[in-house]
Specification:
Blueprint: H1 2-17, E1 33-37, H2 40-53, H3 57-71, E2 85-91, E3 98-105, H4 109-118, E4 122-125, E5 131-135, E6 141-148, E7 151-156, H5 170-174, E8 182-186, H6 193-213, H7 220-243, E9 244-254, E10 259-268, H8 273-281, E11 285-286, E12 298-305, H9 308-328, H10 332-349, E13 353-362, E14 368-375, H11 379-395, E15 405-412, E16 415-421, H12 426-435, E17 439-445, E18 448-453, H13 457-467, E19 471-472, E20 476-481, H14 482-490, H15 496-499, E21 509-515, E22 520-527, H16 529-539
Antiparallel strand pairs: 1-2, 1-8, 2-3, 3-7, 4-5, 5-6, 6-7, 8-9, 9-10, 10-22, 11-19, 12-13, 12-20, 13-14, 14-18, 15-16, 16-17, 17-18, 20-21, 21-22
Length: 540
């Protein structure tokens, strides 16, 4: 179970490993690490907002009480709560030549020193205006600091980082108050090779342990799939440590729209295999990129190619499952039907690609429409085989039920659309109520298969058949317009309060987007009122 959960978490790395652009060139003297926090006020205000929306106000009160008890009723006395602060780390050529620098905005130097005194931190002032603070009991750590440019500059190990010649204006490192709440930039290529090799060695120990402890599924090809996944994770980590140039991360919360956004970007060294692989990811095409629309309530696209070892393991897994299934079939007719079915789906399963699209919409009468589209190979052969199986099953049904299956129910652009009625029964009635229709629709092009549910199912398939053309697309995209969902819920009993959380025209998108190009980028965007909505729905 432990290995399985880890693999789910690390799956994106597995997919990117075999073909992991470089970002813009930075100066060779750029700091290895820069962490920027916009201001204390912004951190506390945003933390309180998040805790309030998820219903954990008591945690915010506890944190506030703890800070007051430790630091004082006025908070961090002497610290300017409205300016940015951060950390800068520089390396020399050797691993031990590390120089950390902490920048803290100061409004009152004397008040700040008093806070240190009240917290029993021993501080000595040197002749040059530098201070030495001794922190810790069992293990004492010396921190050197000085005041300049309205900031406290603090370092450890050596005072050289706060010498006059080394001081940099805070605005050049931290920016101004208008940036994201939190930003971090790691220049991987500025970290000494020895340090990266040590990090790689430690990871390889973990990797070796995972290989030994990996779950035995009892299926040889499934075990090979897990092993190939672990190998690709290891390859990805090594590639990032050795060929990575820059890693960026930002986190921000818009207090007006109550939307949180997280951005990530990884660039490889120019000309490296990592940079070329990331650039190749940005060139991948999906048949369904043209189907994404801001008119849909939900859109999702998956457009990934499996690394070579995982691809081969997937082929073996298909062969093993096929052989086992056929072996268990003793009926000659059923075995022949199964062999035919496996034959037509085999090219798709062995293609090494996952190209898929999903949408959900709200109809005019507040019912739901769904569409799933999958990239396939030899779709027409697949349709022919399924058609023969369905026709045999239909002929064996009571005459009164035969109309529940209608082949060639409709046609569009040379593509036949087939209809199957959703069975009656307790487990299906609720679904049919949401759909407003008991119909499921199917269609095949030679390169794609489509399944739709709901009153608008036929039109959804027709639209998809017309617009599904190869085009550049993200590796992964999930886009949900919460205002459209709110419109649906507002029409339900007790749903008016929920509908008011996402007014039309607001920033109501839930977004997950991962794509390649000049860098491997990922963005997660979430309106925090989603948490408030879940609380309201839970109460009702």
């Amino acid at each position: 179970m432990r290995t399985r959960n880890l693999m789910l978490c690390l799956l994106p790395l597995c997919l990117f490993a075999s073909r992991l652009d470089a970002g813009a060139k930075a100066e060779a003297t750029a700091p290895a690490l820069v962490v920027q926090v916009r201001s204390l006020d912004r951190v506390f205000d945003q933390a309180k907002l998040i805790l309030s929306l998820i219903g954990r106000d008591e945690i915010a009160d506890k944190i506030d009480g703890l800070l007051r008890a430790k630091i004082g009723a006025g908070g961090f006395e002497g610290v300017d709560h409205k300016k940015p602060f951060g950390v800068v780390v520089n390396f020399g050529k050797e691993i031990h030549e590390i120089s950390p620098l902490f920048l803290v905005p100061i409004s009152d130097e004397k008040a700040f020193l008093k806070v240190l005194e009240n917290n029993k931190v021993r501080v000595d002032k040197g002749k040059s205006g530098h201070y030495t603070a001794r922190i810790g009991r069992d293990i004492e750590i010396e921190v050197y600091f000085r005041f300049a440019n309205g900031y406290l500059y603090a370092t450890m190990l050596s005072q050289d980082a706060i010498a006059d010649a080394k001081l940099i204006a805070p605005s050049k490192i931290l920016g101004d108050k208008d940036g994201p709440a939190l930003a971090a930039t790691l220049r991987i290529d500025q970290v000494p090779l020895a340090a990266r090799q040590i990090a790689l060695g430690e990871f390889e120990k973990i990797y070796a342990s995972l290989l030994r402890e990996k779950t035995d599924t009892g299926v040889k090809s499934a075990n090979a799939m897990i092993e190939a996944s672990l190998e690709n994770v290891a390859a990805a980590v090594k590639s990032i440590l050795m060929d990575g140039q820059e890693l960026k991360f930002t986190l921000d919360l818009d207090a007006k729209t109550k939307t949180i956004a997280l951005d990530f970007a990884l660039a490889g060294k120019p000309g490296s295999d990592l940079a070329k692989s990331i650039d190749d990811l940005g060139k991948q095409e999906s048949r369904f990129g043209g189907l994404v629309s801001d008119k849909n309530m939900f859109n999702a696209v998956m457009n990934v190619a499996l690394p070579e070892k995982m691809h081969k393991a997937m082929e073996s897994l298909f062969d093993e499952v096929k052989a086992k299934a056929l072996e268990e079939l003793t009926d000659k007719t059923k075995r022949m039907q199964a062999e035919g079915l496996f034959a037509v789906i085999e090219p798709t399963f062995k293609s090494g690609r996952a190209d898929a699209f999903f949408l959900m919409n709200v109809g005019p009468d507040k019912t739901l429409d769904y569409l799933v589209a999958l990239g396939v190979k030899d779709g027409k052969k697949m349709e022919k085989t399924l058609r023969a199986l369905v026709e045999k099953a239909r002929a064996a049904m009571p005459k009164k039920d035969q109309d529940k299956i209608k082949l060639d129910f409709a046609k569009h652009a040379g593509v036949a659309i087939h209809r199957i009625e959703i069975p009656e029964g307790r487990e299906f009635d609720a679904v049919a109520g949401l759909l407003g229709d008991r119909s499921a629709y199917f269609a095949f092009r030679d390169d794609a298969a489509f399944v739709a549910l709901g009153k608008g199912g036929v039109e959804a398939i027709k639209n998809a058949v017309s617009l599904a053309k190869p085009a550049k697309a993200p590796l992964l995209l999930y886009r949900a317009d919460m205002s459209k969902l709110a419109t649906l819920m507002a029409g339900l009993e007790g749903g008016k309060d929920v509908g008011a959380l996402f007014p039309a025209g607001g920033d109501n998108l839930v977004l997950i987007r991962i794509e390649g190009g000049r860098a491997l980028t990922a963005r997660i965007q979430l309106p925090l009122n989603v948490f408030l909505m879940s609380r309201k729905v839970e109460k009702k």
